[in-house]
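Technical annex, item 7. During the second reporting period the consortium partners agreed on a shared format for inverse folding records so that results from different sites could be compared directly. Each record opens with the tokenized structure and is followed by the designed sequence. A conforming record, contributed by the partner at site C, is shown below for reference.
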């Protein structure tokens, strides 16, 4: 039996039940989910599915990540709600590819772990599965493992197995609507051009879950906990000299402006820190920045595209402005100027929760 797999939270419990109910069937997992976006989230879910299937002794195959083809398939259905027409098209696409994979492998049965997800319509799934039975002659096994306390058992298994518990289905459009309803920043879609790993980002989780697999290979005990903190995302920043001359500049993390714009001049300098006459802004020169982080950046462009890590940059901020919870804008430039300056900075600080791995 070929089992289409969407994520480990659904698949681990579902596969355990299938192993019990179909003891004579050789189960093969098939991870085909081009709907998952961004790609880092796709990699994270695949990683945890591979870990889960390894624990269960089940082979897992990976389908193509044809995200552009999926976007074409759901075009015009962007505003559809969860369990709406977009989901049906999404199921159909994944079932068709899964059915073809089953034919390729010589399988005569197929099912999907989506059946156990409380966020998915079993009726929609069964309709799609039955349609492909008629088309391809592959029987769709529509088991209901949600009933009789199944959802509670699934939650227990998720905790016991330390599975990655994502908080959105994977679809870009579903996530957009979900974050709008929650009035939350959709920071899953932000990734800096420098490839810096940001706190509570998908990339940070991926790095952590890759590390935990290495720990498990060495039988090292660990715990994954959650902690609340003040997160930060910078969307755009520009420094203009005079009326229109853009000066290369870099705004250190947790820099923020209440009105996203400030005009003024640098008034004075103290201990290599230059003070702006608006909005508590501070300037430092690149050579001083280099001395603080023991680096050798030759120009601001190099700093923009290859900055220190988030934690290292936070240490630099604390050296410049050691006050706790500092949100003053700190700008790095190559040379200080006495001309009129215009700062535009769109950034956001917000309460957030992130996972942390503790080695015991």
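Designed sequence (site C submission):
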């Amino acid at each position: 039996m070929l089992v289409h797999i969407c994520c480990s939270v659904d698949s681990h419990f579902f596969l355990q039940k299938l192993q019990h109910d179909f003891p004579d069937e050789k189960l093969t997992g098939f991870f085909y989910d081009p709907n998952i976006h961004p790609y880092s989230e796709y990699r994270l879910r695949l990683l945890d599915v591979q870990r889960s299937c390894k624990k269960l002794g089940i082979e897992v195959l990976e389908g193509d990540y044809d995200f552009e083809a999926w976007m074409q398939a759901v075009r015009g259905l962007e505003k559809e709600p969860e369990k709406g027409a977009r989901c049906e098209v999404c199921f159909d696409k994944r079932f068709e590819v899964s059915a073809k994979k089953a034919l390729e492998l010589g399988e005569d049965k197929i099912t999907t772990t989506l059946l156990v997800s409380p966020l998915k319509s079993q009726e929609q799934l069964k309709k799609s599965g039955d349609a492909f039975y008629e088309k391809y002659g592959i029987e769709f096994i529509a088991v209901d493992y949600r009933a009789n306390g199944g959802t509670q058992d699934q939650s227990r298994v998720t905790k016991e197995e330390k599975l990655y518990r994502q908080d959105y289905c994977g679809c870009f459009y579903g996530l957009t609507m979900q974050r709008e309803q929650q009035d939350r920043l959709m920071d899953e879609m932000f990734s800096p051009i420098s490839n810096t790993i940001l706190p509570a980002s998908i990339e940070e989780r991926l790095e952590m879950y890759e590390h935990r697999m290495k720990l498990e290979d060495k039988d090292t005990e660990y715990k994954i906990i959650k902690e609340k903190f003040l997160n930060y995302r910078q969307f755009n920043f520009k420094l203009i000299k005079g009326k229109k001359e853009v000066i290369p500049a870099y705004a250190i993390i947790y820099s923020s402006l209440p009105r996203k714009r400030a005009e003024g001049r640098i008034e004075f300098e103290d201990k290599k820190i230059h003070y702006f006459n608006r909005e508590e802004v501070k300037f430092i020169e690149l050579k001083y920045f280099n001395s603080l982080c023991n680096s050798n950046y030759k120009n601001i462009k190099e700093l923009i595209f290859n900055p220190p890590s988030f934690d290292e940059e936070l240490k630099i901020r604390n050296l410049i402005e050691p006050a706790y919870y500092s949100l003053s804008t700190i700008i790095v430039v190559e040379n200080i100027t006495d001309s009129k300056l215009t700062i535009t900075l769109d950034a956001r600080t917000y309460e957030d929760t992130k996972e942390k791995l503790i080695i015991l």
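The two ends are 40 Å apart (CA to CA). The first helix runs from residue 8 to 21. All partners now use this format for quarterly exchanges.
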